[in-house]
């Protein structure tokens, strides 16, 4: 049951079912008709439509309560050489894996990032503009992949290969599912297959388990696909193989997801290769650049709070504030940028007012880039004047100038692209 109670149905003393929540009402309305109540434990209700005589039979079903729980189900289906559809419902996300004699022959998903157009974009086969153009051209008779071929954006051979990768990615996502419900039906509608693959279950299981184990390890150094790898100067790069291709694509601006599109590989493979480069000391990884003025102001506030806390602790905060006021006045832009927004005594700015001010200064199109530049420069100057103050007071046992400078640099590094100190 959902925590919000939207999926609750109440059965009263007469046996009448009353949907209590909005979601429950929607689901019940979508199932109008006569149902046969099947035998089941008292805490579970199972019903089957009476009029759909040819509907597939339910061979397995259950709750998903932990990650990798479905690995055993997929393994059993493969070993038993069953044919049918494994359907997984996880909130708004639905996935289906189609089996024939124990092998996976296809898969479908409603999850963001797993539909064909998004997969082709993630693997670099289509640009975002091409995906949008193909989507507009799709009709009831022509599916997305076929339309992409007709428009000349990729060959049928490339499409078939990438559709195989899509099926693999959906299967791996199924086996990572941590919650929801699963159902195995003894057959499926052939017309739902967008392509017919032939993927052995044993190989998919081994790869899924390997990915789950290794990705947990990789995430300690590369927390997400939006993080940005950057080269370490004066370190010898790899000279061959996929790792070399990934290294060549690293420019300090592209995220892991961007690199996937450049080299035509999936997130797991690129993350693994970036991890190898990190372990070899050739690459560092920094947090993703914030998107939107609000995220930029939030980083600025976090950094300035740290700076002002340290200088206030050594009773030199007022001196630093005076220097910052002089810097802001002399720069010619901060008086307008900070108008009615601060800085407050702790160094922070009012988010909404700052966003309004920067939009008035440079317009909405340039607001994000200029705000990042100006706030980065301001924090950099704050560190510049705080460092000597903290060095003089280093005996107090506080963070000290070097530690503070590094901590603040880590916070504001997402404001920098290419390490040049400018967006």
UniProtKB/TrEMBL annotation:
Per the UniProt record, one Pfam family is DUF4388
PatA-like N-terminal domain location is 69-215
Q: Which InterPro entries match?
A: PatA-like_N, T2SS_E_N_sf
Annotated SUPFAM superfamilies? EspE N-terminal domain-like (SSF160246)
The protein's name in its UniProt record: DUF4388 domain-containing protein
Q: Which organism is it from?
A: Polyangium spumosum
Q: What is the lineage of its organism?
A: Bacteria, Pseudomonadati, Myxococcota, Polyangia, Polyangiales
């Amino acid at each position: 049951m959902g925590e919000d109670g939207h999926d609750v149905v109440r059965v009263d003393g007469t046996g009448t079912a009353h949907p209590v929540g909005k979601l429950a009402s929607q689901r019940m309305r979508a199932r109008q008709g006569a149902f046969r109540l099947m035998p089941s434990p008292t805490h579970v209700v199972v019903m089957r439509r009476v009029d759909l005589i040819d509907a597939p039979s339910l061979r397995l079903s259950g709750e998903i309560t932990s990650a990798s729980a479905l690995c055993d189900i997929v393994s059993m289906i493969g070993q038993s050489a069953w044919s049918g559809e494994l359907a997984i419902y996880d909130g708004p996300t639905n996935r289906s894996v189609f089996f024939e004699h124990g092998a996976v022959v296809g898969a479908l998903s409603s999850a963001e990032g797993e539909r064909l157009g998004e997969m082709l974009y993630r693997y670099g086969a289509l640009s975002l503009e091409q995906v949008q153009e193909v989507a507009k051209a799709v009709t009831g008779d022509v599916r997305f992949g076929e339309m992409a071929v007709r428009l000349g954006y990729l060959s049928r051979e490339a499409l078939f290969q990438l559709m195989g990768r899509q099926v693999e990615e959906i299967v791996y996502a199924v086996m990572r599912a941590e919650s929801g419900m699963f159902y195995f039906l003894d057959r499926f509608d052939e017309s739902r297959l967008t392509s017919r693959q032939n993927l052995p279950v044993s190989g998919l299981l081994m790869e899924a388990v390997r990915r789950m184990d290794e990705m947990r390890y990789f995430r300690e150094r590369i927390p997400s696909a939006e993080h940005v790898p950057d080269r370490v100067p004066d370190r010898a790069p790899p000279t061959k193989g996929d790792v070399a291709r990934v290294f060549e694509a690293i420019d300090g601006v592209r995220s892991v997801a961007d690199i996937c599109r450049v080299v035509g590989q999936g997130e797991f493979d690129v993350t693994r290769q970036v991890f190898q480069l990190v372990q070899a000391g050739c690459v560092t990884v920094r947090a993703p650049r914030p998107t939107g003025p609000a995220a930029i102001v939030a980083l600025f506030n976090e950094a300035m709070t740290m700076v002002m806390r340290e200088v206030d602790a050594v009773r030199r905060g007022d001196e630093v504030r005076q220097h910052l006021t002089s810097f802001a006045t002399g720069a010619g832009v901060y008086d307008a940028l900070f108008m009615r927004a601060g800085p407050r005594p702790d160094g922070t700015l009012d988010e909404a007012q700052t966003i309004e001010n920067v939009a008035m200064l440079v317009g909405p199109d340039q607001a994000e880039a200029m705000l990042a530049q100006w706030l980065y420069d301001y924090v950099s100057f704050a560190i510049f004047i705080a460092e000597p103050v903290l060095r003089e007071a280093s005996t107090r046992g506080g963070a000290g100038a070097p530690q503070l400078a590094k901590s603040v640099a880590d916070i504001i590094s997402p404001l920098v692209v290419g390490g040049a100190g400018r967006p």
